[in-house]
Write a structure and sequence with these properties.
heterodimer, B: 18 helices, 67% helix
């Protein structure tokens, strides 16, 4: 019997050999830096998009004892442009700030990160949560290699699926071809950029705070070369007043309640911002009231819908990402202690 | 644990190696190991629901022992009825409780009486309909003395919980599967190789065909009010292939996996979309369930014996129960009813067993008449599937209505990036060529050069890796 069994295993391995070879290549090259990647994850000349949530988590894990972070900005990519230097003006001078964001972040991801910091024994003195309809609607881990939640946040329960997701992308023939072509030629070619396979756009990165700044884009905006016709064609919206459907269901309520409990435990000073978006679709009032009831009206701010912030495309890098100048304005409002003054500032933006 | 998950990719070879290298020495160990890994496989999803499998297995095991120790028919019947009530009671509570409460309230509301009743927040345990029917087949067969009751509790629990069949069948009969747990399995090379091929073909159908069709189907069914008729027709056709790829793919993986462990499982699909009439379709679709209903419901009701009224009644009962088995929703009942309406004329005219051989046997292509019959049967099945897929009866009728009322709108086109049609063609051609075989990659008695076989494997694995959608669960799990 063993002879037959050995023959069977041997033949199965032969059939699987090319795929095992591919696996070996993937482990050695580790293009997504999830196997032997270490902070800093962003280096000059990097061309492969990596999972921002993983970067944030792994960097926090490596550095939290050194920097003793106690202040966090959480949210999806829209939260990246809340600059720490601006935020620190509203916090105690000894605050240690960290951008704990993820691409296409979900409420689930935010909840898991807060839980993770708490379980690690970290402090949560100040928290700024940047939400929108999309993030709030997602009550589970998001699929896709750029978005899948880090295993550290799931007690490693999803570790197999996490790595399989990246390996699957590596095996995708278009990616593999482009990646190997780049490795051999050392050049990022148009087809790689156009198909979103590789990306050589540069940005500034601060490893201590995990902050990304699009300095090149800002420079181009100042030189009036950023808003090309191609870019402008992406700025479109429907005419009229629109409202998002309510998205807060039981699962969201449970997570929000747990977040609130952790904030109470840590005596956290928090603010929740509903992002302004170019599409001017208004966040659902039902959801807003729920957030206000749970977290307090003075700590929840809705900048969605038609207002001065969402009017001009020049406030945005693209249809969904607003610039630091907008974030700066928002922080001025949400940290204003005089409620009358704050109400006037909000009114001045045309927010109803 | 899903068959198309990475977890299973690790689970299967690990269990396979332990089974054949460590636990093959004695039968008890083999069965105990299979029971343990089967419960691990199920508990991976939610360990709390293991208690239901234990209860269901326990009820039927004890019923078997009780039937063995009682000779009196009245007592035996009481044991059978009790076992059925308890087993089906579990199924009823977890699957149908809310459906009955809701409809009870609605029925009273029609009469102007408004009742206040609470439905329960119940999660449907995966595979409950499958293992309940599997366990029941044992008790019924023991009652009818077709099977000796077993005292081997490990063998029986391993039979009910056997992991390849646990979540979505095939609903293998105790008469076929249980005796295989009494004999020590030895590794058979040919059986294992064939099992691997069947798993590969099943993965292709599930990951490439079903999951890619699902993307279109979900989009089309969500936006059926605004889409043109051509898109709605395409949506319905794609759903026919989605549900076939999903369920027959699962069955292929389940049967192939069983073969890796030395078991012969019953066939569940036999190229149903090449059927020439609905009766043939039902002999080829979800065979383990349809034959279960035939043996344990249709025939005990009288089958096609007796008056025409009784035959009609029996047919309707079986199809309605079959529909209801699929879920607590009127859409499934409507689907069953439609199929009964399709089936009945053939039965009444005595033509229900007209097409029992393989279509175009010995020929490469079907004749024009056969082709017409195949297409007609497929379209009839597709029409019924709309009810199966829709969220409500109203939506199903609206969907069908829009096929006709939206016909003036533009024809929908899909980008050439979407390779679903060529991939579908690959499946159809392979299944047509292999229609008298057990599965698409059944190479028994076919002389194929080794390099062609290896190339086929590589090609399929590459297609699965390239065109496989994100991991989707199986439609039939919810049944």
């Amino acid at each position: 019997m063993n002879k037959n069994l050995n023959k069977f295993i041997y033949k199965t391995l032969i059939v699987l050999f090319p795929f095992l070879l591919l696996l070996l290549l993937y482990i050695i090259l580790d293009p997504f830096k999830v196997i032997h990647g270490n902070p800093p994850f962003y280096k000059k000349g990097d061309v492969v998009d990596i999972n921002r949530g993983y970067v944030s988590t792994a960097t926090y894990e490596k550095q939290y004892q050194k920097y003793k972070y106690d202040s966090f900005i959480l949210g999806n990519s829209r939260s990246r442009f809340y600059e720490i230097s601006d935020w620190q003006k509203y916090l105690p001078s000894n605050s240690s700030c960290y951008h704990f964001d993820a691409s296409s972040e979900s409420l689930y991801g935010i909840y898991k990160k807060i839980l993770y910091i708490d379980q690690k024994g970290g402090s949560l003195n100040n928290v700024l949560i940047i939400l929108d309809d999309d993030a709030l609607a997602k009550d589970k881990s998001v699929e896709g290699h750029l978005f899948i939640i880090s295993p550290q946040l799931e007690n490693n329960k999803n570790i197999v699926n996490f790595h399989a997701t990246f390996f699957k992308v590596f095996c995708y023939y278009k990616f593999l071809y482009a990646f190997l072509d780049y490795k051999i030629s050392g050049k990022v070619k148009d087809y790689m950029r156009d198909n979103g396979l590789l990306d050589d756009e540069s940005f500034d990165y601060n490893q201590a705070t995990n902050e990304i700044r699009l300095s090149d884009a800002e420079e181009k905006i100042w030189k009036a070369t950023y808003y090309t016709n191609k870019r402008l064609s992406g700025f479109n919206r429907l005419q009229g007043d629109f409202l998002f459907e309510p998205v807060i269901k039981d699962s969201q309520k449970q997570m929000l309640e747990k977040i609130k409990q952790i904030f109470i435990k840590h005596h956290t000073s928090y603010r929740i911002v509903i992002s302004p978006q170019y599409d001017q679709i208004k966040f659902n009032p039902e959801d807003l009231h729920y957030l206000e009831d749970s977290f307090g009206k003075d700590f929840v701010f809705d900048f969605s819908g038609r207002n001065i912030l969402t009017e001009s495309y020049q406030n945005f890098y693209d249809k969904t990402h607003y610039r630091p100048q907008v974030s700066k304005q928002i922080m001025e409002i949400i940290y204003e202690t005089d409620s009358t003054k704050r109400a006037n500032m909000i009114e001045a933006l045309g927010i109803k | 644990m899903l068959f198309n998950s990475v977890d299973f990719l690790i689970f299967l070879p690990t269990v396979f190696l332990l089974y054949w290298f460590i636990f093959q020495k004695n039968l008890k160990l083999q069965n105990l190991f299979l029971l343990a890994v089967s419960y691990l496989f199920y508990g991976w999803w939610d360990w709390r629901f293991l208690s239901l499998i234990l209860i269901c297995s326990g009820i039927n095991y004890l019923a078997g022992l009780a039937l063995a120790s009682h000779k009196e028919e009245k007592t035996r019947k009481l044991i059978l009825v009790t076992s059925c009530i308890l087993s089906l009671g579990l199924l009823g509570v977890f699957k149908y409780f809310n459906f009955f409460i809701d409809n009870f309230i609605n029925a009273f509301a029609l009469a102007g009486i408004y009742l206040q009743a609470r439905t329960l927040n119940i999660i449907l345990p995966l595979g409950i309909s499958f293992y309940t029917f599997k366990a029941l087949s044992y008790t019924i067969d023991v009652y009818f003395r077709k099977l000796e009751p077993t005292k081997d509790i490990i063998a029986f629990f391993a039979f009910v919980g056997f992991f390849p069949q646990l979540l979505a069948g095939p609903i293998d009969r105790a008469t076929n599967l249980l005796p295989q747990f009494y004999i020590k399995r030895t590794f058979e090379y040919d059986k294992a190789v064939d099992g691997m091929r069947q798993i590969l073909w099943g993965l292709f159908k599930k990951i490439v065909i079903a999951d890619n069709c699902a993307t279109f189907v979900n989009n089309i069914f969500s936006n059926y009010e605004t889409l043109p008729a051509s898109a709605l027709v395409l949506g319905a056709v794609f759903f026919s292939f989605q549900i076939y790829g999903d369920f027959s793919g699962y069955s292929d993986i389940a049967i192939g996996t069983s073969r890796l462990f030395g078991f012969n499982s019953m066939r569940n699909f036999s190229v149903p979309y090449f059927s020439r009439d609905i009766a043939e379709f039902w002999r080829r679709w979800h065979i383990s369930l349809t034959s279960w209903f035939r043996d344990y419901l249709y025939i005990p009701l009288g089958g096609n014996r007796g008056t025409k009224y009784k035959v009609v009644r029996n047919t309707f009962i079986v199809f309605l129960v079959c529909g209801f088995w699929h879920g607590a929703n009127w859409t499934f009942i409507a689907w069953g009813l439609i199929n009964a309406v399709y089936f009945l004329p053939l039965l009444l005219l005595g033509k229900n067993r007209k097409n029992i051989d393989t279509v175009a046997h010995g020929k490469i292509l079907p004749g024009i008449k056969e082709l017409f019959q195949i297409v007609t049967t497929f379209l009839l099945a597709t029409l019924a599937w709309i009810f199966f897929r829709a969220d409500s009866i109203r939506q199903a009728f609206a969907y069908i209505g829009n096929i006709f009322s939206n016909s003036s709108k533009a024809v929908v086109t899909y980008s050439s990036e979407e390779l679903i049609i060529p991939l579908l063609l690959i499946m159809i051609v392979v299944e047509w060529l292999q229609r008298d075989k057990q599965h698409g990659l059944d190479f028994d008695n076919i002389k194929i050069p080794a390099f062609v076989r290896i190339f086929t494997y590589y090609a399929l694995i590459a297609i699965i890796m390239q065109f496989g959608s994100s991991q989707q669960s199986f439609i039939y799990f919810k049944f």
